[in-house]
Amino acid sequence: MEDTSFEIYSGETFGLIGETGCGKSVTALSALRLIPDPPGKIISGEIIFKDKDLLKKTDIEMQKVRGNEISMIFQEPMTALNPVFKIGNQISEVILLHEPDDEIKNNYNLSNVYYICDEKYENIE
After folding, report:
1. pLDDT digit string (tens) for 108-122?
2. Which CA distances in Å does 88 have to 106, 111, 112, 117?
3. What's the predicted TM-score (pTM) here?
4. Most CB atoms closer than 10 Å: which of 71, 79, 88, 118?
């Protein structure tokens, strides 16, 4: 990809559309720094989010951004969830990773998420 540029303002939802193979996923994965280096490499430019360059953030700092402040809906739904792990665990993982307040985490009542998902999809274990 060369010369990719766009601006997304606070409160906006952004959709990136285009033909198959044109680089939509590569662009989004690169912005979230999810493309391994190598084979991928960002050779120049910057990705500014909340006045900070995401390219200068550590991996730990990026984990706090991904899913909490910037999210991507992957185009292949069958690869979004890992069939090896229970669905309830995968859904609740987002809350557990991004909610700093233990009291708020407890109020989500994650046991209900596990119960509903595991009961509905008990055949996938």
Report:
1. 555 554 444 444 444
2. 15, 9, 9, 5
3. 0.60
4. 88
How many Å is the Cα radius of gyration of the chain? 17
User: Is residue 51 within 8 Å of residue 69, measured between CB atoms?
Assistant: no
8 Å CB contact between 42 and 30: yes
Residue 50, Ramachandran bin (φ over 0: left; ψ between -120 and 50: alpha; else beta): left
Q: Where are the domains of the chain?
A: 24-76, 87-124
1-9 CB contacts, 8 Å cutoff, 24+ apart: 1/26, 1/27, 1/30
19-38: per-residue pLDDT in tens?
888 888 888 888 899 888 88
* Tokens encoding 125: 């274990």
